[in-house]
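testing teh design pipeline on a random one, pls ignore if ur not involved
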C-alpha cells in the first residue's frame, strides 16, 4: 500500500469520526439534516428556497452554505427570507467535510431548529467521498447538464438516498433522454427515491416536501 493511499484512508477515517459526532449532536436535538449536492448551476440555492417556502410553515429551518470563495451571496438569499444561514468558506477545497460542518453547526441556533439543510460545494466528484453526519444525501441533477451524468460520475449516484431531477420545464428545449438517464441511475442505485421538479414552475415541489415532512416527523418521534 502506498503512502498516499494510507494518508487518504487516515483523512477519511478522521472525517468519519467527526461526522459521527455531528450526527449525534443533531440526533440529540431531533434535528433532521440534509446534505445537498449538485454540479454548479444545477439549481441548489433555488431548490433550497423553494423547499423553505413550502416547509417553513410547519418546521424551523437552518442552512449551511458551502462555497470555495469567501462570498455570502447564497447565504444572503436565505437570510433574506428570514431563515438563519451560515456561510462556510472551504478555502478552495472542492467539498465540505465533517469538521467544516461541525464548525458551521456551532454558529446556528440549533435549539430553535427542526431541520438543517447543508448546501455542499458544486461538484460531482469530491463531495461523494466525505460523510458529513447528515441523515440523507440528496443529489440535484438538472436537465441542461445532460443525461449521461450517472455514467460519468457513478460514485455520487451510489451514495445518495434521494435524487432531484431539476429544471424539468426545459425538457422540450434540451436533448435529454429521460429513459437513458433513469436506466443509468437504476443500475447504480436501484429503487432510488426520485422527484422530478421545476423550481421555476413549482412542479414536483409539493411531492418532495410531503415526502421530506414525513421523514422529519419520523425523526422527531
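output:
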Amino acid at each position: 500500500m502506498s503512502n498516499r493511499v494510507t494518508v487518504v484512508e487516515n483523512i477519511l477515517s478522521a472525517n468519519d469520526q467527526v461526522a459521527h459526532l455531528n450526527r449525534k449532536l443533531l440526533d440529540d436535538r431531533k434535528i433532521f439534516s440534509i446534505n445537498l449536492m449538485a454540479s454548479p448551476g444545477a439549481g441548489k440555492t433555488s431548490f433550497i428556497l423553494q423547499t423553505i417556502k413550502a416547509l417553513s410553515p410547519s418546521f424551523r429551518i437552518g442552512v449551511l452554505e458551502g462555497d470555495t470563495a469567501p462570498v455570502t451571496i447564497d447565504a444572503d438569499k436565505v437570510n433574506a427570507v428570514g431563515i438563519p444561514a451560515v456561510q462556510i468558506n472551504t478555502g478552495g477545497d472542492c467539498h465540505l467535510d465533517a469538521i467544516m460542518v461541525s464548525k458551521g453547526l456551532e454558529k446556528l441556533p440549533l435549539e430553535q431548529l427542526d431541520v438543517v439543510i447543508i448546501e455542499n460545494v458544486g461538484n460531482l466528484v469530491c463531495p461523494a467521498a466525505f460523510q458529513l453526519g447528515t441523515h440523507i444525501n440528496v443529489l440535484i441533477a438538472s436537465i441542461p447538464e445532460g443525461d449521461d451524468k450517472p455514467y460519468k460520475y457513478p460514485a455520487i449516484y451510489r451514495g445518495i438516498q434521494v435524487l432531484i431531477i431539476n429544471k424539468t420545464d426545459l425538457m422540450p428545449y434540451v436533448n435529454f433522454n429521460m429513459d437513458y438517464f433513469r436506466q443509468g441511475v437504476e443500475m447504480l442505485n436501484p429503487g432510488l427515491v426520485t422527484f422530478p421538479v421545476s423550481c421555476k414552475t413549482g412542479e414536483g415541489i409539493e411531492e418532495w416536501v410531503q415526502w421530506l415532512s414525513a421523514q422529519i416527523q419520523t425523526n422527531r418521534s
